[in-house]
Amino acid sequence: SKLHGRWSKHAQSLLEERRHLSLVANITSTQIKRLEACGITTINELSETKLKSIQKLSTDIFERLKAQAEIQVASEGSDKPFHKVLSHQAGRALGLALLPPHSPADVFFDIEGFPLIDGGLEYLWGSTYFDENGERTFRDFWGHDEAEEKQAFIDFVDWVFDRWQMDPSMHVYHYASYEVTALRRLMGRYGVREHEVDTLLRNHVFVDLYTVVRHGVLIGEPSYSIKNVEHIYRGKRDTDVASGGESVVVYEEWRSNPDGRTWQDSAVLKAIRDYNIDDCDSTQELAEWLRSEQSANGISYVGNSLDKAKEDAEEETDITRLRDDILEKAALEQDLEKQSVLQNLAWLLEFHRRENKPTWWRLFDRLGLTEADLHDDMDCLVGIQRTAKEAYLPTARSRNMVYEYAFDPDQPFKGQARNFYILGEEDAKVSCVEYDPNAGLISLRSKIEPPDRVSLVPDEYVNPNPIPGAIQSVIEQLLETNFAPCAIEGFLFRRRPRFSSGPKDPIVPVDLAGPQFINSVIGAVNALDGSYLCVQGPPGAGKTYTARHIIGDLLSKGKRVGISSNSHKAIINLMSGVADHVSRNSVKATLIKVGGDADDPIFDKSNVDYRKNAGACVGDLAETSLCLGGTAWLFCNSVLAPVNEIEPLDYLFVDEAGQVSLANLVGMSRSTKNIILVGDQMQLGQPIQGSHPDESGQSALEYLLQKVATIAPDMGVFLPKTYRMHPDVCALISEQVYDGRLQSDESTKRHAIDINAEILPIQSGIHFIPVSHEGNTQGSEEEVEVIAQLAQSLIGAPYWSEKEGGPQRKISWADILFVAPYNYQVNLLRAALAADAKVGSVDRFQGQEAPIVIISMCASEASESPRGIDFLFSKNRLNVAISRAQALAVVVGSPRLGTTPVNNLRQMELVNFFSEILRHGVQPPSSKCQG
């Protein structure tokens, strides 16, 4: 790694001395690993190799790396680095063809950011431009806190948007993706200037010169940062601040000890500003140099076509008007709590539109890349070739043919998407009907015959309708009634649950256990009076057991109950328990599951029926003792809206409520009188990708609990006992995650694996096995080898379980869960382990348990993890992974993960949690467990 803290300069000098492959510009750690496996270990060896290709690396990437090494070696010792314009296919929007003609209104843009606080701060927005006299000048916008950052963002966008409206041929040039990423993030965070930024992005006003350089020119420098590239077209810099990293340090010192508030009266801020001016000026000079190369090589500008906006303009206008009215009302509101609720409701109106933006951005970014760029994107599949197999119709009623393609099985591909765009043929879409990763075959259904060779880019868009309309309807109703008491009103204001019998504090007496505890919860639910109740269930605490008893009781009293969650799997899991419960207790009830797989085993039960969609269940809605299961798409459907004169459901149970968005809960709330939230916000969070203002992007439980780990006794019910985890496993989870409130039931104390101490030194608890490796990001073959050996050693070991009557069985493959954060590692583990091994990501195993859990961390260093520290060390995800274990949780990973450098307090807390896992025992290398 190049990240060695205070030793970085020394480490870099060692790499240069050894001519290490990391000196090659734009090379990745995975590529270094694959080159070294073929005997190429230095930049010189790469530049001189006669090989045409190597294993597990595409030919295009290998040729590019070899050419880069050659030009770097050739440039050594010269005054200026050599450069070479890459060959260009006429008419293709790539490389120098992406450079627009000059406009006198052009802007050259650079942001200075400060990452060392939660959420970061974009504190300086600098731009070089030419005034009406043709003189190069500079404009800057500053923001030293959130309010000032928001205003700087607004002022910059307004300035650029006005210039673009006056001259549509102008562009904003920047170097690398940081600036556009910041714009996308802040427009969501603050909910302002979204239309303007969207319009500028769709019209390709922002031009990333790094992309132009990367695909247009080969340069003999060890990095393609602008500081290196500018060695070709300008002299040495003479500003006091030397780099972006140094500017962070300097700005941090200023924040701790400011010598003035503005650059005019602060020497520190003036030095940062001078550095930013230099960056902006260099960007302008780079554009000029690239334009000269473009002209000299006869390359014409090929403008990108406008990205198609898939939004309903009329609906968008209505929503925008309502949003602005609510925000205006909030600004005048004296009650701060009500003001906050109003603001969040305003933002919720556009939650799904905002949430879908990253999907479109990711798609358009990918469609602008090359096959080589997409090769290591595990959601894409590049360079696949049509096989000799004849196209066929999959069924007699099919209208679209299926075509078989072959791909390199060594190409990293998760194989999750089902629908794809074809790179370079964006109007053509295909769907995957069959995928065999081992054979390297994929079958695609298409309306028209695709080309013989294609590259696939995933279509990740999910249509949110009718949910946004339901959200709007609920919000309008709340405003019209001035927040009349109801379930969602009480929830939004975080009021204590309202009971017909009066306040309950605590809601469930703390000294109750077993049947008495369950009956007390059932009593509380029955007493709800147009309100809500949260039942927080930590791992193994009987959340589903409790919920099905409550629902069973309600059905026995003729109540109409809904069950919802983000996934059909979670809904079916709870409904299945309810079906069994009412059957055992001879309760006559109608159970209907809407949507999902009609062939799911739940429909083998005699008391559960299937309906394809909301329209198909209209005739069932008036039934008493009704249990209706479906996602937010069902409970936001107009058939369940009050306007249809259908009486609302008596109760809506929202399972896994820590994963369900606040927006979806608001939309679903119109279908019910009372809401029961069942879940745990300390386990898997909601799958969110957009940036949202205030609290509008939170899950239902995140919103309710406001960063508190466990629900207060007067606000909800906390299930305090785990019937799964041995105390040695539970201790860490309780202390680090649940405020010490979670205890193991007595029955868990004998959960243990009788295993040789040479293999593992403990029989129960949490244990860490270090495996050293380099260059791994989403998969580690080294960890796979160690895990496979460990698993073989565990198979056949006696498993003790009090509730199963002692040592009645030996460990089999069914008793071990193999968990990895990335699907690529999941695939590697599946290939190495027994066919019946249970392997998956954390998401797959939530709600499951096993005597043993083995967790693979994959990444050699957290900094190399593609989704960052926040994902790899997520407390929620590690909590879920470890807490699947009844007896033993084994974490396998690089020992360097424990010394991960951090940028802010939140990351420090995450690394600290992982360090606590390490503290529970590190196994020394041994022949039995080390690869």
Q: How would you describe this protein?
A:
There is one protein chain. The chain is an alpha/beta fold and 931 residues long. The protein contains 30 helices and 31 strands. Helix 26 (823-832) links the parallel strand 28 (816-819) and strand 29. Helices cover 37% and strands 17% of the residues. The two termini are 21 Å apart. An eight-stranded parallel sheet has the order 17-16-18-15-19-20-14-21.
Q: Tell me about the biggest sheet?
A: 8 strands, parallel
Mean pLDDT: 92
Overall shape? globular
Distance between the termini: 21 Å
Question: Measured on Cα atoms, how large is the radius of gyration?
Answer: 30 Å
Strand portion: 15-25%
Uncertain spans, ≥5 residues at pLDDT below 50? Answer: 308-315, 923-931
